[in-house]
């Protein structure tokens, strides 16, 4: 299995994210990411670090993906990889909350609202984020 095939499989089966979301993380267009994942464009050595970070791939697995031709799950299971991903994402969230105390305050305030009301407000926040996420 080629590296680009492993990346695509990792995104679909472990991250369980659409290309659009990972393309956003990589600051690429969705069509550019599609070309990389389908082997129609080469991932340069300089880009490897960005792909590793965007896909939240543990270092040991990333080395395996690069240098071994075996299947993606030869040394671990999808469940273990998803758990590692969850931990990495929580660390990223904790770092954001530490850097931006306003986020912590907002989430805390939302947690005190009735569930239906907090759900509405979170949906509004998501829509705002979607509207501004491509701004530079």
UniProtKB/TrEMBL annotation:
Coiled coil region boundaries? none
Domain named HTH cro/C1-type: which ranges?
7-62
Q: Which Pfam families match?
A: HTH_3
What are the GO MF terms of this UniProt record?
A: DNA binding
Say which domain of life the source belongs to: Bacteria
Q: Where is the signal peptide?
A: none
Question: Would you tell me the protein name for this molecule?
Answer: HTH cro/C1-type domain-containing protein
Please name the source species.
Bacillus smithii 7_3_47FAA
The taxonomic lineage of its organism, from the top, reads: Bacteria, Bacillati, Bacillota, Bacilli, Bacillales
């Amino acid at each position: 299995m080629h590296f680009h095939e492993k990346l695509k499989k990792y995104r679909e089966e472990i991250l369980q994210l659409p290309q659009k979301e990972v393309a956003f993380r990589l600051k690429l267009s969705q069509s550019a990411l599609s070309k990389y994942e389908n082997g129609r464009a080469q991932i340069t050595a300089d880009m490897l670090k960005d792909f590793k970070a965007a896909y939240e791939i543990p270092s040991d697995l990333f080395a395996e993906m690069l240098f071994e031709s075996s299947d993606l799950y030869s040394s671990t299971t999808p469940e273990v990889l998803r758990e590692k991903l969850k931990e990495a994402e929580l660390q990223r969230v904790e770092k954001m909350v530490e850097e931006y105390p306003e986020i912590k305050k907002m989430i805390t305030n939302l947690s005190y609202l009735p569930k239906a009301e907090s759900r509405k407000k979170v949906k509004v926040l998501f829509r705002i984020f979607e509207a501004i996420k491509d701004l530079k």
